[in-house]
Please model this.
Amino acid sequence: MNARHLINYSLHLADNALVLGHRNSEWTGHGPILEQDIALSNIALDLIGQARYLYQYAARLMNAGERPAVPGGPVAGAAGSPVTEDQLAYLRDSWDFRNCLLVEQANGDWGTTVLRQFLFSAYQYYFYRELRESRDGELSAIAEKSLKEVTYHLRWSSEWVIRLGDGTEESHARMEKAVDQLWMYTGELFLPADYEQSLAPLGIAVDLAQVQPLWTTRVQEVLKEATLTVPNAVAQKGGKQGRHTEQLGYLLAEMQFLQRAYPGCEW
Amino acid sequence: MESTKTIWSLLETVHDPEVPVLSIVDLGIVRDVRMADGHPEIVITPTYSGCPAMDVIRMNIRMVLLEHGYTDIQLSTVLSPAWTTDWMSEKGKQQLKAYGIAPPTPVPIVCDLGLFQPNEAIACPHCGSYHTAMISEFGSTACKALYRCEDCREPFDYFKCH
Model:
């Protein structure tokens, strides 16, 4: 097995969780009501926690092998010093990030944010259920832990999509607009990158073809209940290979500012 | 054997900073304690992945053991099997209730995907009434939900099933 593929796969999963966690954290202090502000901040915390396990694992793999194992990445500080989870989160640039395009999209209004969460939580739920069976013990343990948290996220976001979609004229119109904006980024979730194609037959990575029908059923059920229509849209792709929308650069500029301005800063 | 017993009793004095009434042993996050050449090895598991208390708990474990003369303390984390509220001790549940936090119910009924489920019947830790309503599924920390008692009108935290 190619160690590089496993590192990239772990980074892909970590980047998905970190980027969405960071997007959600932008709502902290700005939520429409206090309870939902707290709910989304808790979801952000769960996702950032999951990202940490995955970055720690990627860092261990990188430190065990010959470096530089990751494309685009003189991510370590001085030559010879070990790679850390913080370097992976704060010192890689946008072309090194392997997250799906969906998670980096801007928050927009509350409806867009909960729809983005719903589309991704539905994916993460069925994805982690499969990853629990991974032959990689570390990934399987992270999936087992994360699945419990994602169950809450999926239920919470499903209810919000229904509440707003089948709500007032105004909330319905906004949700229709949000579906139109985000739907084009959902196709990429099921397009395997080279590291997935290489690891899936080995029973390490999830076979996305197993996840897609489950996701589709769940998403269609909820959108139908929410009286929302599913658009036809060409799938945008590239995030898993490091080709991102403009949105990610702005996100990283804010998220990484402190570590780039004051390297190694702790408080 | 005797020495791991001492470590366990020291860990009884380390508390969850967010729920100070609960020791980490009663919370059920200490998975194993071993001794290797007089140096303690402790295995813990997180409640929630993003629980910010975990870093503080790790630090407090080290502080307590260092104060008692132990050095080269090994702390490791395991994720599987994942923590559930079943790992919490009966004593811990009683302590939570006395502190004003409703303890997790023995049979988890909302840990699935069903939408708009009726609220679990949670007894108010202040007056004991079951006439309570959920305000938010996510409370002041990831492990708690926010409830209100319709009888005594007090809000309270519920340590939700997980």
Q: What stands out?
A: The mean pLDDT of chain B is 90.
